[in-house]
């Protein structure tokens, strides 16, 4: 900006131009926000065991497991789910960068800050991503099958409690 004193018409023109830039930035920011809110990414792992969907915040909103999991150990399934979520979040981060570039642009400090923050949030390691899957200590333990149901205790004839509740039996 120069040091000369503006006449009223020049000042009005500058003010209108400034207001126009602010209005455009506000509209572009709203468009960016609307597109962010609608954004979801669905990703499948390479072995076809899992399909995950994450929303615009990177939260898991969908999980589908296929019969391929029947051939895999629980720790492999868990690791596959977690890595597929990370891949979906990375793709989400890329798509949010594209939205920032297409709407407000990354040439402004605000655009760069938004792009950086959203990217860091989605690509960064969070506590829920560092979950370790614990292996059972006893390898002879078999997984439950659909025919494994709890059995009910059958009371014998001499097990009459005269309708009194006895918690110590």
Keywords:
DNA binding; YbaB-like_sf; 169 residues; YbaB/EbfC; Ybab, Chain: A; mainly alpha; rod-shaped; DNA-binding protein YbaB; three-stranded antiparallel beta sheet; DNA-binding
How many E-type strands? 3
Tally the helices.
Answer: 3
Poorly predicted residue ranges: 125-131, 143-152, 165-169
Q: Write the element-wise H/E pattern from the N-terminal end onward.
A: HEEEHH
Strand content: 5-15%
> What is the class of the domain at 13-129 in the CATH system?
Alpha Beta
Helical percentage: 40-55%
**Rg computed from alpha carbons, rounded to a whole number of angstroms:** 29 Å
What characteristic shape results from the CA principal axes? Answer: rod-shaped
Biggest sheet character: 3 strands, antiparallel
- Whole-Å distance between the termini? 89 Å
CATH architecture of the domain at 13-129: 2-Layer Sandwich
As for the CATH topology of the domain at 13-129, it is Ybab, Chain: A
The chain-level structural class is mainly alpha
Return the average pLDDT rounded to an integer: 79
CATH superfamily of the domain at 13-129: Nucleoid-associated protein YbaB-like domain
Biased composition (Acidic residues): 129-141, 157-169
Keywords: DNA-binding
Biased composition (Basic and acidic residues): 114-128, 142-156
Region (Disordered): 101-169
Topology:
Elements: H1 8-38, E1 40-44, E2 50-55, E3 60-65, H2 74-103, H3 109-123
Antiparallel strand pairs: 1-2, 2-3
Describe the structure.
With 169 residues, the chain is mainly α. It has a domain at 13-129: Ybab, Chain: A (2-Layer Sandwich), CATH 3.30.1310. The protein has three helices and three strands. It has a three-stranded antiparallel beta sheet with strand order 1-2-3, covered by helices on one side. Helix 1 runs antiparallel to helix 2 (74-103) and helix 2 runs antiparallel to helix 3 (109-123). The longest helix is centred in the N-terminal third of the chain and has 31 residues, at 8-38. It is rod-shaped. It starts with 7 loop residues before the first helix and ends in a 46-residue tail after the last helix. Residues 125-131, 143-152 and 165-169 have low confidence and may be disordered.
């Amino acid at each position: 900006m120069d040091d000369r004193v503006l006449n009223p018409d020049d000042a009005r023109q500058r003010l209108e131009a400034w207001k126009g830039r602010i209005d455009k930035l506000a509209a572009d920011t709203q468009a960016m926000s609307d597109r962010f809110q609608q954004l979801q990414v669905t990703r499948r792992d390479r072995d076809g065991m899992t399909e995950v969907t994450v929303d615009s915040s990177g939260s898991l909103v969908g999980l589908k497991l296929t019969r391929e999991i029947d051939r895999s150990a629980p720790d492999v399934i868990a690791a596959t789910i977690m890595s597929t979520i990370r891949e979906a979040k990375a793709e989400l981060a890329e798509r949010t960068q594209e939205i920032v570039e297409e709407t407000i642009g990354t040439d402004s400090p605000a655009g760069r800050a938004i792009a950086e923050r959203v990217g860091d949030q989605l690509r960064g390691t969070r506590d829920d991503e560092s979950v370790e899957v614990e292996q059972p200590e006893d390898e002879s333990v078999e997984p439950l099958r659909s025919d494994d149901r709890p059995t009910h205790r059958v009371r014998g004839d001499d097990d009459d409690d005269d309708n009194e509740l006895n918690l110590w039996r």
